[in-house]
Specification:
Elements (H helix, E strand, L loop, with lengths): L8 H16 L12 E5 L6 H17 L5 E5 L6 H9 L6 E6 L2 H8 L9 E11 L1 E5 L7 H10 L5 E4 L5 H13 L4 E4 L3 H9 L5 E3 L2 H9 L4 E6 L24 E9 L4 H16 L1 H9 L4 E4 L1 H21 L6
Parallel strand pairs: 1-2, 1-3, 6-7, 6-8
Antiparallel strand pairs: 3-10, 4-10, 4-11, 5-8, 5-9
Helix pairs in contact: 2-9, 4-11
Length: about 325
């Protein structure tokens, strides 16, 4: 006969209470992240957004901890709208994040109906603030903005300007320079700065409207570019020898913010973990060193400050749209 050892009543009661408690607590959630996180870059390979995304991925993995793995996905096209929409429309579970770039994020919903605005996201923090710039091939005889204006007036419509898309900071800057200089320029939109660089290297276009940090990366890599001017209010520390548009008599000031966001509605604990990981990444000395090597001008904005800047910029572009619509005709 098998003898069954009786459990003391006190232990039996405790076991039953524990089981009931676990049942009432619902399913135990796995620690985030438990599988790879997609990081969407809304522009093509080789551009500033793509390079920074790939550079920062190991740091985000480090600070998210556990089995975190970041997979960078390029979703170029429509001036960034394809990638922006993919981020906004993804499941808000923390497994899709991505870069949102201004002004495209703000200008595209002004010019046409979209499935996103900047309010469609949980903001995780801004990382980059890169001023715009005009570059030409080093073999070009054009060395200043005045010389560019003179050439454009002598050759109406023949000055082609490559940008990262309609409504980008590059495109709006082109329109502002066109108006200020009394010239007629021809817009050539590409899917990212990497494509603009390629067109400049092969001299398919006259002017490459490329952000300062990106242009410096390409020059370092051997692309024969020459700056005509930068669009910051004052000369950037990245290019102290390059005069601003304002210095040269053209009231053009444009820059691109590049920050991280996720679909609206993240669980609070997931959002907080991502926000913290972004902040820790930007403060990491190794990340700063790598960003400097990429000529990526860092400017961290916490989510609340980032939201305030986006709201202010949106109002400015809505006003600009009324006087200088940027849709290609």
């Amino acid at each position: 006969m098998t003898h069954i050892k009786k459990m003391p009543l006190s232990r039996l009661a405790a076991s039953l209470a524990l089981a009931a408690g676990l049942a009432g607590a619902g399913p135990v959630l796995a620690a985030y992240p438990e599988h790879p996180i997609n990081l969407v870059a809304s522009y093509g390979p080789g551009g500033g957004t793509d390079l920074v995304a790939r550079m920062m991925a190991p740091f985000l993995q480090k600070y998210l901890g556990g089995d975190a793995r970041i997979v960078v996905l390029n979703r170029p096209g429509a001036g960034g709208a394809i990638g922006f929409a993919e981020i906004a429309n993804a499941k808000p579970d923390g497994y899709t994040i991505g870069f949102i770039n201004t002004p495209n994020l703000l200008t595209i919903p002004i010019e046409r109906k979209t499935s996103f605005t900047w309010k469609s996201y949980d903001l995780l923090g801004n990382l980059i603030d890169d001023p715009g710039g005009f570059t030409v091939h080093r073999d070009s005889g054009i060395r200043t903005l005045d010389e560019l204006a003179a050439y454009a007036k002598a050759n109406p419509g023949k000055v082609t300007v490559g940008t990262t898309g309609t409504g980008s900071d590059d495109h709006i800057a082109m329109l502002q320079f066109q108006r200020a200089s009394g010239t007629t320029l021809t817009h050539v939109p590409y899917k990212g700065a990497g494509e603009v660089r390629g067109a400049m290297a092969s001299q398919q276009i006259v002017v490459g409207a490329i952000n300062v940090g990106e242009a410096l990366q390409y020059i370092k890599g051997g692309t024969p570019l020459r700056f005509l001017g930068q669009m910051s209010k004052a000369r950037s520390d990245l290019a102290p020898d390059v005069p601003t548009f304002i210095e040269q008599g053209y009231a053009v000031q444009q820059a691109s913010l590049r920050g991280l966001a996720a679909p609206k509605g993240l669980p609070a604990e997931v959002r907080d973990k991502l926000v913290q990981a972004v902040a820790q990444t930007v403060q990491d000395p190794a990340f700063k060193k790598q960003a400097a090597a990429l000529y990526a001008p860092l400017r961290y904005l916490a989510p609340a400050d980032y939201a305030a800047e986006l709201a202010e910029s949106e109002a400015g572009y809505q006003s600009l749209w009324k006087e200088l619509p940027w849709v290609d005709k």
